[in-house]
Specification:
CATH architecture of the largest domain: 3-Layer(aba) Sandwich
Number of helices: 12
Radius of gyration: 21 Å
Mean pLDDT: 96
CATH superfamily of the largest domain: Alkaline Phosphatase, subunit A
Order of helices and strands: EHHEHHEHEEHEEEHEHEHEHHEEEH
Helix content: 25-40%
Strand order of the largest sheet: 10-9-11-1-12-13-2-14
Structural class: alpha/beta
CATH topology of the largest domain: Alkaline Phosphatase, subunit A
Oligomer: single chain
Largest sheet: 8 strands, mixed
Number of domains: 2
């Protein structure tokens, strides 16, 4: 059985239960999908149910009795619970030390130097919700033109600015300045541009968000695929997470509908290789905003898309559906949660009823991609292609 195309779809923050070490992160009891279903009185996810989702954790409305296709769940081996760490691990890199976090704001020397280099004052400099901080400081920003800098429980340096005060291109330049500064002991996982518009009392964030990640510290499976002349397509914020490293093409879509519509187009195209997809809305719009209703609706919309597109897959196609961490919107926290992630694999001609169990690392995906595309074995992780007849 020859694998020609793999569609690796990351449902950003879709977790299926707390990891054994979740207590160390303050995330005991988190179960993003399970708790959402409980709060909403059930979820209607027939296509993911058929793939085996209900076998991974108790999900009201999703049967555990479906035969399932190829299913399991993954534990994150790296230290951390953020987007960059999760995606890098899928691509084969393990972080032994988490990215630094700043629950009390960034040190004065960082803020002073950033202010000097951008020519703007800084307000905020604390951990905060992105929507709440523009309500709190947006009017002051309009008056003073000071940049709003904030962080969260994740390793991020976020810069919010009104687009009529700081045009997008200029905001991105300020992010690049911060990215160059934040190295070594202050090497945060991401610097994020957070543009907004509106007036006091009605500020709203705009789609111009852009992430400036650290460059991967070593070769990833994306680099290996690219070197072997396979197509490596990034969709969504994949290009930001990997700083374009290992990609041959990219489409930086901005929301789930746009992202999934483009993946539908790619399914119809002729190529051999990997399509690496991030569906950001689960995390950005619903997880961080503690909106279980919106999150549940987004899950059901993805499931409907899945049902429409599974028949379009060709012999030799694999679609792998997973997550990068959790972000349980039913808990008091508005931040990511340390959770298992789903591992669901579908495609024409693949066997059914294959339980891959609990994988010890997301890097099993990198190892499996190497096996699928007949590349040299990946040094970490355990491939599961052999378990499904490859």
């Amino acid at each position: 059985m020859k694998t020609k195309r793999v569609f690796l779809i990351v449902l950003d923050s879709v977790g299926v239960g707390a990891l054994p070490d979740a207590v160390a992160y303050g995330d005991q009891g988190s179960n993003t999908v399970g708790n959402i279903a409980k709060v909403l009185g059930g979820l209607n996810l027939p296509h993911m149910e058929a793939a085996g989702l209900g076998k991974l954790t108790a999900i009201q409305g999703v049967s555990a009795d479906a035969e399932g296709k190829i299913f399991g769940k993954m534990a994150e081996r790296s230290a951390g619970k953020d987007t960059t760490t999760g995606h890098w691990e899928m691509a084969g890199l393990i972080l032994e030390k988490p990215f630094p976090v700043y629950p009390h704001g960034f040190p004065p020397e960082i803020i002073t130097e950033f202010s000097r280099k951008t020519g703007h004052g800084v307000i905020g400099n604390k951990a905060a919700s992105g929507t709440e901080i523009i309500v709190e400081l947006g009017a002051e920003h309009l008056r003073s033109k000071d940049l709003i800098v904030y962080t969260s429980a994740d390793s991020v340096f976020q810069i919010a600015a009104h687009e009529e005060i700081v045009p997008l291109d200029q905001l991105y330049q300020y992010c690049e300045i911060a990215r160059k500064m934040l190295q070594g002991e202050h090497a945060v996982g991401r610097v994020i541009a957070r543009p907004f518009l509106g007036k006091p009392g009605s500020f709203y964030r705009t789609p111009g968000r852009k992430d400036f990640s650290l460059e991967p510290f070593s070769e990833t499976v994306l680099d290996r695929l690219k070197a072997a002349k396979f197509t490596v397509y990034g969709v969504g914020k994949i290009e930001d997470i990997f700083c374009w490293q290992g990609l041959t093409q990219s489409n930086h879509t901005h929301n789930n509908p746009e992202t999934l519509a483009f993946v539908s187009e790619l399914i119809e195209r002729d190529f051999e290789g990997l399509v690496f997809v991030n569906c950001v809305d689960f995390d950005m719009l619903y997880g961080h905003r503690n909106d279980p209703k919106g999150y549940g609706q987004a899950l059901q919309e993805f499931d409907a898309w899945l049902g429409q597109n599974l028949p379009k897959l060709r012999e030799g196609d694999w679609m792998i559906i997973t997550g990068d961490h959790g972000c349980d919107p039913t808990t008091p926290s508005t931040d990511h949660s340390r959770e298992f992630t789903p591992l669901l694999i579908v495609g024409p001609g693949l066997p059914v009823g294959v339980n891959l169990g609990i994988r010890n690392t997301f890097a099993d995906i990198a190892a499996t991609l190497c096996k699928c595309f007949n590349l040299e074995s990946w040094p970490v992780g355990e491939e599961f292609a052999s378990r499904i007849g490859f």
